[in-house]
Amino acid sequence: MEKMVGQRIKRKEDPKLITGNGVYLDDIKIPGLLHASILRSPHPHAKIVSIDKEKALAHPGVVAVYTGKDLEGKINPVPTSWKVPGMNLIETKQYPLAIDTARYVGDGVAMVIAESKYTARDAVEMIEVEYEVLPSVANQKEARKEGAHQIYEEVPDNVAFKYVAGEVTDEDLENAEVLIKGTYNTQRVAPSPMETRNSLAQYNPGSGDLKLYVGSQNPHIHRMVLSEVLNFPEHKFHVKVADMGGGFGGKIGVYPDEALVSYAAMDLKRPVKWVETRNEHFQSANAGRDMMVDLELAGTKDGKITALRAVNHANIGAYLATFGPGNPTIDFGLMLSGPYKIEKAQCTTYGMYTNTMSVDSYRGAGKPEVTFMLERAVEDFARKINMDPVEVRRINFASKEEFPFTNAQGLIYDSGDYVKALDKAVENAGYQELREKQKELRAQGRYIGIGLSSYVELSGFGPSAVAGGIGFQGGIWENSTVRVHPGGTVTVYTGTSPHGQGHDTTFSQIVKDKLGIPYEDINFVFNDTRAVSMGWGTYGSRSLAVGGNAVALATDKVVEKGRLLAAHLLEADVESIDFSEGIYSVRGEAGRRKTFKEIAKAANFAWNMPEGMEPGLEEKTFFDPSNFTYPFGTHIAVVEVDVETGGIKILRYIAVDDSGKIVNPTVAEGQILGGIAQGVGQALWEGVQYDEKGQLQSGSFMDYTMPKANFFPKIEMEFTETLSPVNQLGTKGVAESGTTGSIAAAANAVMDALAPLGVISIELPLKPEKVWKAIQKGGAKS
To answer: Which controlled-vocabulary keywords does the entry list (predicted)?
Structure first.
């Protein structure tokens, strides 16, 4: 029988969703349901002088109105959960509703609870707030300048933290044959899932239980953090995730809104629902990226990179998000040298408070940013020494013989063959032919650009001891239980939290291969803190590398217990029992056999068990890997720039990625494809815009430009397979690779197209008006 791992199996999840039978949070209807709406500050920074809620309370259908002062002493601040040692973090307090001061456009000021969502929204507009507008700052570099307004009195210069990784001296740079200096910024972007954030809380006053449906990528973390915020016992707190329309990192963090809804449900003893509007998403959902980096790259004239030094001003917003401090320090700072063998690298990161919404994880979380900046600098370096950028990468890659490879900041990469992925991408693109065609077209006045991006990313978040060492406030092992029913069917419980990734499909392929039972006989349970004892969720490309391996190991335990029982029933030595394709048999005696289904029945009926064996066929595993995993690859973008308009057309896009063992190529390609759309979207179109004071200027899709499917050619994808040695399956992770590799590929292609015109740098996103202005200026930086 052919193994399912590695096969293109159609997704189990799809029929329910594409036939309209999915149940999303807003589909859930509970008798007596109330609806919440939140009044948000229109000012970037303002003292709350007074709040008059009488008109709102008098409005028909309104049940309650809460302000920050109403909740003072009743709900704790929402904490941050990643406190990196050595960063000297100044942690301020974010209360679910602002008490005295609103610190960004969208900061919650009051909440209305009403019989319908429309009544709640109408009543919010009846609340009268008197504000005293205060000075504000939105740009992180401006926030650190002398004389900038302080957002918090206790935070000098608005610096929440400073973190230094590695060491590079001035001499390391000044004595170099070639020195590249550049400022490379990644703008703020909005996660923008199809389904916005939401929560529905239901309190049972009889049992004292609280149930919270929430759009979350990690329901157990939500339970743990909200228990602290609400002073509510975890064992009485049930968190469940319905079908969820995407997250992209925006639903990792714990938000004030979820605490507010939970409190209101307990206070009013009626269920309460809140669903974020799209405008609220742009105002108050954690954004991503927003880093300004001054980077110096030292090298030799023959192409060897000798040192890197970066100063990163990371905008963390008005409050510390759940994982906000870790992304620019660990995920960015420790990955500064990328896939290259560079002896010296240093990254100094300033986490800056500003009067903007908080910044947290967005697909890739630090790795796309550092890859963009490094790969832009590598291209600039190649151009300065007049060497093909492909050759520069070959010269500097860590070779496959050097793995496990320790990078300049001390991270140990598990496995890799960077040259193989690069060569495959170059081959698939027809790179040399593209360069010749580029010359021909330039002679005709057409500006074609070819951009490369080679990356490696820290993924498979799982080593708990390492997590503790870098200040992550929790373990990141994973848990799975495999339960075999009397009829031989199987239910698998996992602590991962799928919301579009296809875990039900890929994890079932793993179990099917190990047990030899029909694929349709396997069912998965997830996203439920009552059903799954503990789990650390889905982010950081960890689900397959950690969660999938937990499933595999628990299934192995089931097989071994079945082997013991089969030996007993077949009256044979355990060592002589083989298991293959769902059959236990005595080696060399084909007639002596038991099917997995027969063993399942025998174990659950327990009429005839070996001495000391407990009834049932169910096993649990907690898998804590020994290291992170490190996917890698090379992307090549080909674009044409219209110099008359600044418009950019993507002609081709080639991606070669290595994610370790691929369980389902179709699912993996879907992840790469979606990631590329988001990465190229950031490079060319997307961006959350604030004015210099912090007033939001991109509050809808009219102003925030999302890419459409017809903006892209067919994406040419291929995988190489370099197995990871840190888990049984050899998997690495795939969900963030498309984004990590694509921002720089697209940007480098545009800059390559414009190089003959003297354009050396344009800040993202590369919208037509920016490109056109840069062309008019020629060699000036834009």
So the answer is: Molybdenum, Oxidoreductase
| Token pair for 9 | 């199996």
Supply 451's token pair.
């951009």
Q: Which of 580, 596, 623 is the last residue of a domain?
A: 623
Q: For residues 677 and 597, state if they share a domain.
A: no
What is the token pair recorded at 249? 């990192």
User: Is residue 96 within 8 Å of 229, Cβ to Cβ?
Assistant: yes
Answer whether the bond into residue 404 is a cis peptide, omega within 30°: yes
Please give the structure tokens belonging to residue 14: 């799809």
Residue 283 has pLDDT above 70, yes or no: yes
For residue 76, pLDDT over 90 is answered with yes
Amino acid letter, 621 = T
Do 392 and 498 share a structural domain? no
Which residue type sits at 4? M
* Nearest 10 degrees: Cα torsion 562, 563, 567, 568: -30
Q: What is the pTM of this model?
A: 0.96
Does residue 781 carry a pLDDT above 50?
no
Phi, psi (degrees; rounded to nearest 5) at 625: -70, 165
* Token pair recorded at residue 385: 């020494």
How far is it, in rounded angstroms, from Cα 182 to Cα 154?
33
125 and 74 part of one domain: yes
Q: Are 341 and 396 in contact (CB under 8 A)?
A: yes
User: Residue 201: which CATH number?
Assistant: 3.90.1170.50
Does residue 731 carry a pLDDT above 80? yes
C-alpha 434/C-alpha 239 separation (Å) is: 53
Question: pLDDT (tens digit, 9 = 90+) per residue, 350-394?
Answer: 999 999 999 999 999 999 999 999 999 999 999 999 999 999 999
Angle in degrees, CA 65, 102, 35, rounded to 5: 30
Stated as kind and residue range, the H or E segment containing 499 is: none
Say whether pLDDT at 773 is over 90: yes
**Parallel, antiparallel, or unpaired: how do β-strands 198-204 and 272-275 relate?**
antiparallel
642 and 729 co-located in one domain: yes
Determine the average pLDDT of the residues in 56-72. 99
Give phi and psi for 183, each to the nearest 5: -110, 120
User: pLDDT by residue (tens digit) across 480-537?
Assistant: 999 999 999 999 999 999 999 999 999 999 999 999 999 999 999 999 999 999 999 9
pLDDT of residue 640: 99
Residues 634 and 502 in one domain: no
Percent composition of the chain: helix, strand, coil (DSSP 3-state, to 5): 30, 25, 40
Structure tokens, 536: 């650390």
Cis check for the bond before 42: say yes or no (omega within 30 of 0).
no
Least confident of 410-419, 469-478, 546-555, 658-667: 469-478
The DSSP element (H or E) to which 306 belongs, if any, is strand 305-317
Q: Which amino acid, residue 744? A: A
Please state the φ and ψ torsions of residue 153, each to the nearest 5 degrees.
-60, -30
CA-wise closest residue to 61 among 124, 2, 150, 152:
124
CA angle 723, 724, 725 (to 5 degrees): 115
Query: What is the rounded CA–CA span in Å between residue 448 and residue 386?
Result: 18
Q: Cα 36 from chain centroid?
A: 28
Which residues constitute the domain of residue 539? 478-623
Across the range 754-763, mean pLDDT stands at 95
Task: Evaluate whether 318 touches 103 at the Cβ level (below 8 Å).
Answer: yes
- What pLDDT was estimated at residue 780? 45
| CATH number for position 653 | 3.30.365.10
> CA triplet 732, 734, 736: central angle to 5 degrees?
120
Query: Which tokens go with 754?
Result: 């414009």
Residues ≥6 apart with Cβ < 8 Å to 613: 561, 564, 565, 568
- 177 is a domain residue: no
Provide the 10 A C-beta neighbour count for residue 293. 26
User: What letter represents residue 492's amino acid?
Assistant: V
